[in-house]
TrEMBL record:
It comes from Streptomyces griseorubens. Keywords: Lipoprotein, Membrane, Palmitate, Signal. The lineage of its organism: Bacteria, Bacillati, Actinomycetota, Actinomycetes, Kitasatosporales. Residues 1-23 form the signal peptide. This is Lipoprotein. Its main location: membrane. Pfam families: Lipoprotein_9. It comes from the Bacteria. It is a lipid-anchor. Belongs to the nlpA lipoprotein family. It is found in: Membrane.
């Protein structure tokens, strides 16, 4: 059994963030003592699984004391990194990180890209995307970047048309053509796979799809393309911590041939190494 500290967090409203509150309940700044363990905040799947593979198989030989803390939302890992409750995090993409820093005044930076989780459209009611009926309801993530990715995925597969240049900032207001008159239910990203019995389809982030026993490579009606995709998941730290020797060791291990093989063997195309 893995000795992983697991924290189940309530989903926090981005407009009500309190960055001074320690997300881990510890008085010690986990990022300040480079002689102690490197504490990394991570989503359970696949991030914590990958980190635990490193911890169990590679870290000791590399001289890295690694501690993994699991979080179930997309907010607390960043607030915990910002206030020093953890030394690093591994759960997000660069567009999400840029948006988070801009909205919340945080100072978190990327260290290295590790993997891609293709965003997919899933359904319990239809087998093909073009089988969606007129007026169908699709659940999409409600955070800025993942909502934009979801709409771009639908646009790339001919289900709607978006304004030119909106990118990952797209919202339903940017739809210029909606031939199937699709309706959208905006949910916290973790809730999208749980909505599948209540909506006609849902766009689900790869990590939450895997947690829900969905297999993106097999089950998705449509799936993001991996080639030239800017949405790799990355290891991140608070600005100024990039040269922490523990962080450098972890970055090297996360992009090692051993981790690439682990990703390929474990996730069978539902998670793709970015290195």
């Amino acid at each position: 059994m893995r000795n992983t500290a697991k924290i189940t967090t309530a989903v926090l409203a981005a407009g009500a963030l309190t960055l001074g509150l320690s997300a881990c309940g510890s008085d010690k700044d986990a990022a300040s003592d480079t002689s102690g363990p490197l504490v990394v905040a991570a989503s359970p799947v696949p991030h914590a699984e990958i980190l635990n593979f490193v911890k169990d198989n590679l870290a000791e030989k590399a001289g890295l004391d690694l501690e993994v803390k699991e979080f179930t939302d997309y907010v607390t890992p960043n607030t915990a990194t910002e206030d020093g409750s953890v030394g690093a995090n591994y759960f997000q993409t660069q567009p999400y990180l840029d948006d988070f820093n801009k909205k919340n005044g945080t100072h978190i930076v990327s260290v290295v890209d590790v993997h891609l989780e293709p965003l997919g459209l899933f359904s319990h009611k239809v087998k093909k995307a073009d089988a969606l009926k007129s007026g169908a309801t699709i659940a999409i993530p409600n955070d800025t970047v993942n909502e934009g990715r979801a709409l771009q995925l639908l646009a790339a597969n001919g289900l709607l048309t978006l304004k030119d240049g909106v990118g990952t900032s797209a919202t339903p207001a940017d739809i210029t053509d909606n031939p199937k008159k699709l309706k959208f239910k905006e949910l916290e990203a973790a809730q999208t796979p749980r909505s599948l019995d209540d909506v006609d389809a849902a766009v689900v982030n790869g990590n939450y799809a895997i947690e829900a026993d969905l297999k993106p490579a097999e089950d998705a009606l449509v799936l993001e393309e991996a080639q030239d995709n800017p949405n790799s998941n990355l290891l991140a730290v608070k600005e100024g911590q990039e040269n922490d020797p523990r962080v450098k060791k972890l970055a090297k291990l996360l992009t090692s041939p051993e981790v690439k093989k682990f990703i390929e063997d474990t996730y069978a195309g539902s998670v793709l190494a970015s290195f």
